[in-house]
Amino acid sequence: MAEFLKPDLCIIGAGALGTHLAIAARRRGLDVVLVPRPRDEANDPTAGALRRAAFLASAARAHAIRTAGAFGLGNAEPKPNFRAISQRAASIADGATPRATDERLTALGITLLSGETSFTDAKTLRCGETALRAKHFVIATGAAPSIPALPGLDQVSVFTPETIADNLRKLSHLVVIGGTPVAFELAQAYRRIGSDVTLVPQGGLLPGFDPELVTILLRQLREEGVAILDDAEVTAIQPRNQGTGIVLARAGEADRLDVSHILIAIGGQPDLDATLLDPLKLKRAKSGDLALGPDGQTSNRLVTAIGGAAGVDAPHIGLRQATLLLDRLTGRGHGRLDPFHVPRLVDTDPPLAQLGLLPRDEKLRPGQTVLRANLAETDAARATGATGLVKAVVDARGQITSLGAIGAGSGDLAGLVALSGQKLPALTDLVLPPASTGAALVDLATQFAETQPVSKGLPLLKKLRR
After folding, report:
1. Element housing 139 (H / E)
2. Using CA atoms, how far apart are residues 365 and 372, in angstroms rounded to an integer?
3. pLDDT in tens, 15-48
4. Cα(188)–Cα(181) distance, rounded to whole angstroms?
């Protein structure tokens, strides 16, 4: 006889995000069923991001050795050991990623199911011999790397941001196809450890980030030797006995590039199993992805998508979605993601961080103004030789409506602003330790204060004090 369950929450997908949500839900007292899939652990975004961060750290050390002369030390050419770099990154990711074994999950009270899985109607999921009617279903099935339909691409081996982490040898000339944050991060890292690197944005330079700040980042990467072809697009791949040919459309004319390896980093495609989801008849967007509300909810009020399944590439945003979903299910909030409270980051050197969307000056709303602070003018920047810019859009009351920063510590600055409630005047008297990059925020607050009219009662107050 088939078993019938009615849990509070059923999570489909047992990768890092699905497992995190299951454990967090149990801590809040919910009855949870977790349905793993055979490929759940492949290309796990959380572990992948940590492994990539470790690789970037090795590249940063190589760059520091190469440029030590700027700090009164002797320059030297680093000698990267790719096998050691890769093994270190893998070890760090493995050691820091919690091992959510079946035994541990079961001990926490989470029910694990296995078997062929699919919805039988809008409210019922069948997994093997078990049928479920949960109060809420979550699709946490992740995303697969997007691969463009380029002629000849299927005839050559290519890396994705996930698979390139397994590389154990030097890449003599790497072409990075994509304009995503990961594309920029890996392009700079491989250049720093000795590879020739060409970046072809293929669809835009960091879409959604402020063009002024992106221009600063492009200048830095070009100074380090990354060739950025922002006026080109890859149109075809030419397999060869030695190396690979890249056919480009550049400035209206055909061009060619000889490379040794290809990295595709144009983002992810939600992994939406048709066999699993088709019976739900969920509405789709024009892109083919699920049509989602601001809280990630699908057209079926019982089903929510989070993380890669919802088109979210950044692991930290997926984790925030999970927390907000639990808030909504337990009556602690509306569950909607506020983009201002989740900084987006390009983890290059210098890093680029952004909260909200920065409009161009000519598109400002009435009462809004743009304030800028030069990070090179802080004590911290003078000591390290760093440069950068903080740019904020504020309204007439000093409320920060969007903010971008490029330079050392920019991610921390964005996080501090998100935590402050976005009120710039409140940062005027911020007390900071010496040489803090946060001094740039005080600069912005001071600039805003100086634009405010003097209170009418101030002259009278001065007379009374005489």
Report:
1. strand 136-139
2. 18
3. 889 999 999 999 999 999 999 876 554 456 667 7
4. 11
Q: Residue 116 is which amino acid?
A: E
Token pair of 366, please?
Answer: 């009435």
Decide if 361 contacts 383 (C-beta within 8 A): no
Query: Is residue 455 scored above 70 in pLDDT?
Result: no
Strand-pair partners of 196: 173
Tokens of 456: 């009418």
Strand ranges (E), 89-133: 111-112, 117-121, 124-127, 130-132
CA distances from 465 to 162, 454, 460 (A): 68, 17, 9
What SS3 class is residue 297? strand
The Cα–Cα gap between 60 and 55 comes to 9
What does the alpha-carbon distance between residue 395 and residue 400 come to, in Å, rounded to a whole number? 7
CA pair distance 236, 372, nearest whole angstrom: 42
Residue 115 structure tokens: 């078997």
CA distance 265 to 56: 16
Q: Give the C-alpha separation, 302 to 6, whole Å.
A: 13
Token pair listed for 417: 């602003």
d(CA 178, CA 144): 15
Domains of the chain (ranges; CATH) run 3-44+97-144+269-337 (3.50.50.60), 153-268 (3.50.50.60), 341-450 (3.30.390.30)
Give tens-digit pLDDT for 318-349: 999 999 999 999 988 777 787 777 889 999 99
In tens, the pLDDT along 48-98 reads 788 899 999 999 999 999 998 888 888 899 999 989 998 898 888 777 655
- The average pLDDT across 237-252 equals 89
Residue 226 has pLDDT above 90, yes or no: yes
How many residues are given for the chain?
466
Enter the pTM of the model: 0.89
Residues of the chain with pLDDT > 70, as a percent, come to 93
